[in-house]
Amino acid sequence: MIFYFTATGNCLYAARQLDKNTMSIPQVMSSNMTRFSDDSIGVVYPVFGHRPPEMVREFLERVELDTPYLYIIPTYGARHANAVEIVSDICKKAGKRPAYIHTLLMVDNYLPAFDMDAQRMLDKRVDAQIGEIKADIAARRKYIEPVTDDDRAAHANFLKYEAVLPGRSLSGLVYASDRCIGCGICARVCPGGCIRIVEGKAHFDYANCQGCLACAHACTQKAIELKIPEVNPSARYRNEHVTLQDIIYANNRTR
Question: Per UniProt, which keywords does this protein have (predicted)?
């Protein structure tokens, strides 16, 4: 069994490769399910500012995972910094003891910092990395990826950047421009249920915004824009192995 949080399909793809029994974290968090049991349980999620999305943090704190082998795979696109240490601390406070934590380098979909066209061109050896991780899991390897002082310094520098963002947060950076046609795709891919279509236009309630940018990447009109500059406003991303319907299904909180 593996739990995942996905915005553009990277973590969904990784989860599918690691275990046939995949569980959507947004669906779990909108249900009354609080306990799961299996021979091994995994959690795969994208790091946002080197941290889990807030929903993933809440999942780790709330849900009981009864397993002799808990493994966690934080995915990242440029630098993971001390992501392993951060999630380790969250687990420790929640009474969980991961046997294995290993980062996974994938496409970075953070629009203010990366050009999606350029990211697609990079060979990040995703399948090779997943193969190595899968072999470790099959062997029940115990391993916590080391964290260095440089990793911690990278996170400290990021926090300075985050402090000057609108709202001092990665969440709430998006809005619907005049190009919005009210199709509702953004609302259907939003894992936090933050978007409603009102009078033919997307309206945002940022209270549960995860800062994942799923809405911006999925919009067919590129009508979901950011409040800060983008590297390439014309480029968007979805994992080539994942469909839009896959993401809609994953983030449907009413199932």
Answer: 4Fe-4S, Iron, Iron-sulfur, Metal-binding
Per-domain residue ranges for the chain?
Answer: 2-162, 166-250
Alpha-helical (H) ranges within the chain are: 10-18, 25-29, 54-62, 83-93, 116-121, 126-138, 149-162, 185-189, 214-218, 244-250
Domain covering 166-250 in this structure, CATH number: 3.30.70.20
Structural tokens at position 206: 């940022």
Give the whole-angstrom CA distance, residue 184 versus residue 142: 44
Report how far residue 60's alpha carbon sits from residue 93's, in angstroms, rounded to the nearest whole number: 10
Give residue 130's pLDDT: 98
For range 1-5, the mean pLDDT: 99
Distance CA 150, CA 201 (A): 44
Q: What is the C-alpha separation between 99 and 141, in angstroms, rounded? A: 8
* Average pLDDT of the segment spanning 37-52: 96
Confidence (pTM): 0.94
* Per-residue model confidence (pLDDT) at position 21: 98
Beta bridge partners of 201: 198
Nearest to 211 by CA among 166, 170, 155: 170
**CA distance from start to end of the chain:** 18
Determine the CATH number of domain 2-162: 3.40.50.360
